[in-house]
Design brief:
By secondary structure, the protein is of the alpha/beta class. It folds into 2 domains: about 150 residues, Aspartate Aminotransferase, domain 1, CATH 3.90.1150; about 240 residues, Type I PLP-dependent aspartate aminotransferase-like (Major domain) (Aspartate Aminotransferase, domain 2, 3-Layer(aba) Sandwich). About 40% of the residues lie in helices and about 15% in strands. It contains 12 helices and 17 strands. The strands form 5 sheets. Strands 4-11-10-9-8-5-6-7 form an 8-stranded mixed sheet, sandwiched between helices. Helix 5 links the parallel strand 5 and strand 6. The radius of gyration is 21 Å and the shape is globular.
């Protein structure tokens, strides 16, 4: 408890909340103020395909509806409902993951990430996190009172992980390495040889290797996504996936986690994770009915989604690289771009001013982590071409003041 300047006794929140931030949603608060004034904001900020012109495959909607009508609305098993669990075992085989020890479904991949980090990391220990990377990871680590140990992705090398930088940051308190592949926010797709180098690092230091593969089917230019855990059978892997992005249902919050590796290495950690899995009861029962038709039913939507995202990616890169003061590495997966900017103001001020002056909403790069001395912002390439054209026209006008 504490006493305010007005003499009112207030409830003091836990210290662990002081540094928790989520840039993607935080900046949207500013946009909401403008919307309430009747101002139209062009949204290039949130990775939700359903906010734009993408639609959930109908056969998945029908499967969930049937499940509800069949009264599958009670508690489900903690791991997964039987059909979903069997389909996920087949998915792990398709991804060529050896030594699968367990799996479970979760409330989005986010819950799986939080449960696994919580089961592994003690206060004062550290985990290697990619900068730039998805801010959920840093928020969870702050809640756990553990150290975020950033390693920097190499912008000059297509945003691939810098393995030498990674190794230099490992010490006796390091517990794990996190990969996000394809990466959010850069759209980078990691090369097999880079993954093998990271695996060698985890092997040498006996670290758990977390691999977030939520965008694994959204890959461009004929390239192929390689699941990290498919490349070795003697390392502890935790692989995250889900329906949100590939299958256009982020609001259904349906993710999963695969834990793999030698039994003698992962058994205790595996059981620790499942203590939390059991304690939170279950993920949504009716939504689990979407897993089988998504993974094993018609995949017709994917070629269309990838084609549209490729067109919008190409246009985004062409426009951003044509604006003086901006440069952008070409993404190879997901639906983001992470342009670098040469401006004399901090990146968050840049984003807020762009929003207020031109009504274009992007997210500041510092919210994802970035190499010291550089400044970026993230754009989402999901909007239709007309929206992108208007947004980049306004961005170009805004940038003129800095030249």
């Amino acid at each position: 408890m504490s006493t305010s300047s007005q003499g009112i006794t207030t409830i003091t929140p836990a210290r662990r909340t002081e540094y928790v931030a989520y840039a993607i949603r935080d900046i949207a608060v500013e946009a909401e103020k403008l919307r309430k004034e009747g101002i139209r904001v062009l949204p290039l900020n949130i990775g939700d395909p359903l906010k734009y012109d993408f639609k959930t495959p109908r056969h998945m909607i029908e499967a969930v509806y049937r499940s509800m009508m069949e009264q599958n609305n009670g508690y489900a098993p903690s791991i997964a409902m039987d059909d979903a669990e069997a389909a996920l075992h087949r998915e792990a085989k398709r991804k060529r993951i050896p030594n699968l020890r367990s799996l479970f479904v979760s409330i989005g991949a986010s819950e799986g990430i939080e449960l696994c980090l919580t089961a592994l990391v003690n206060p004062g220990e550290n985990v290697l996190m990619p900068y730039p990377g998805y801010p959920l990871y840093t928020a969870v680590m702050q809640k756990l009172e553990a150290e975020i140990r950033p390693y920097y992705l190499d912008e000059e090398n297509g945003w691939q992980p810098d393995v030498a930088d990674m190794e230099a940051r490992i010490d006796a308190h390091t517990r794990a390495i996190c990969l996000i592949n394809p990466n959010n926010p850069t759209g980078a797709l990691y090369r097999k040889e880079v993954l093998l180098d990271v695996i060698a690092l985890a092997r040498r230091h006996r670290l758990v290797l977390f691999s977030d593969e939520i965008y694994d089917r959204l890959v461009f230019d004929g390239l192929e996504h390689v699941s990290t855990a498919s490349l070795a059978d003697d390392v502890a892997f935790v692989t995250f996936g889900g329906l949100s992005k590939n299958y256009l249902v982020p609001g259904w919050r349906m993710g999963w986690t695969f834990i793999s590796g030698p039994a003698e290495l992962v058994a205790d950690f595996d059981e620790a994770v499942h203590k939390f899995v059991r304690a939170r009861l279950c993920a949504s029962a009716p939504m689990q009915a979407a897993i089988v038709p998504a993974l094993e039913g018609p995949q017709d939507h994917l070629p269309d989604v990838v084609a549209r995202l490729t067109q919008r990616r190409d246009y985004t890169i062409e426009r951003l690289n044509a604006i003086p003061g901006l440069s952008c590495v070409k993404p190879e997966g997901a639906f983001y771009a992470f342009p670098k900017m040469d401006v004399p103001i901090p990146d968050k001020e840049f984003v807020v001013r762009l929003l207020r002056e031109q009504h274009v909403l992007v997210v500041h790069g510092s919210g994802f982590g970035q190499k010291p001395g550089t400044q970026h912002f993230r754009v989402v390439t999901l909007p239709d071409m007309a929206t992108l054209e208007s947004a980049y026209d306004k961005l170009e006008v805004f940038m003129r003041q800095f030249r």
